[in-house]
# Entry
Amino acid sequence: MLFRSYNDSVAVAWLAPDTTSVAGFHLYAGNNPGGWVPVQNPVELPVDQRFKKYSFEKNIPHFFKMMSVSALDDSSESFPTDTYGYLDNESDGKVLIVDGFDRTSGSYPFPYHSFAMIMGQALARFNAAFETVSNEAVSDSVVNLADYDAVMWLLGDESTVDETFSNVEQKIVESYLQQGGRLFVSGRSEERRVGKECRSRWSPYH
# Structure
């Protein structure tokens, strides 16, 4: 998923690899686990839809998660997606939160998380405008890091098995740093791969 702001609206895009038994999607908005409400009425987004624009109030952070709806029972929903968000305000710069945490075989076993939301809430306290995307949006060139003043890359406990920075991502990040970009990487195991394969390439930009 990705959330990017455009003037007075936000663009939401998502992928759904297998929609065989899916009737549609529910998109929820909220700032805490107990306050999630449907974004639209009717609630359900069509199964073949992958992009939608919405208008929300500026100057406050907004967070979202999506669930697929079963084609057999329209009251049954899947696990939620990871929780992403954005803040659109009048600040000069913008931060990109990149969610690179996909692993479910480590210390965190669930197929969804709210770590990007936690980072967004922290940035919002400093009135820092931000957007959130998956790492695949970066590696597939859907998002250009050069459009952002800083990048916060979240890895969780990704490791060499699940891959922290792919070769493609390493090249994209190196180019961003060469252009004067600022990168913050957080994660439990990132030193295994970053330390072995990236540190020598990125060290001039420390």
